[in-house]
Amino acid sequence: MDIHSHEGAGPIRFGMAREEVLHLLAAEADSFKRNPTDVHPCDHFISLGCFVYYADRNGLFEVIEFSAPAKPTLNGVDLLNVGFIDLLDIIRDADPQVSIDTEGFTSVRLGIGGWAPFLKSAPNSSVETIIVFAPGYYD
Fold first, then answer.
1. Is the peptide bond before 69 cis (omega within 30 degrees of 0)?
2. Which of 5, 61, 116, 137 sits CB 3.0–4.6 Å from 127 for a disulfide?
3. pLDDT for 84-115, tens place per residue?
């Protein structure tokens, strides 16, 4: 799925209702609450390799998280199949202020982040997940 910074990914756009997301992704979804305090359940599209999260009192689409077998792309680059160091170079070109920690990165400017749990032991391993988030998610 192509990532559209601050807009969404593939055919879905931030702010869509859950029913629209389910219709557009047209794949079986398991719905559940990751935390007991969550207001809305998330949808896990196993065959697509993604979780879709809904937020606020209206339950509108706010975040999508990709893992294998998904192929999230940004400007033609498959973000799950690039070593972390190389991926970080790509992200820094677009966002010199990208935030980096011991397990990944977050680019508020691009509305994406990556989780790389093996970063310390294997610095150029691929990220395990890519998160794409709506504007204001980290406010």
1. yes
2. 116
3. 999 999 999 999 999 999 899 999 999 999 99
- Please calculate the CA angle 126-33-24 and round it to the nearest 5 degrees: 70
Mean pLDDT of 115-132: 90
83-89 — which CB contacts under 8 Å span 24+ positions?
Answer: 83/124, 83/125, 83/126, 84/114, 84/116, 84/119, 84/123, 84/124, 84/125, 84/126, 84/127, 85/123, 85/124, 86/124, 87/114, 87/126, 87/127
Tell if the pTM clears 0.70, that is, is over it: yes
CB-CB contact of 62 with 134 (8 Å):
yes
Confidence of residue 57 (pLDDT cuts 50, 70, 90): confident
Beta bridge partners of 106: 99, 113
CA 56 vs CA 3, 9, 108: distances in Å: 22, 20, 19
> Which phi-psi region, left, alpha or beta, contains residue 10 (left: φ > 0; alpha: ψ -120 to 50)?
left
Q: How many CB atoms lie within 10 A of CB 72?
A: 27
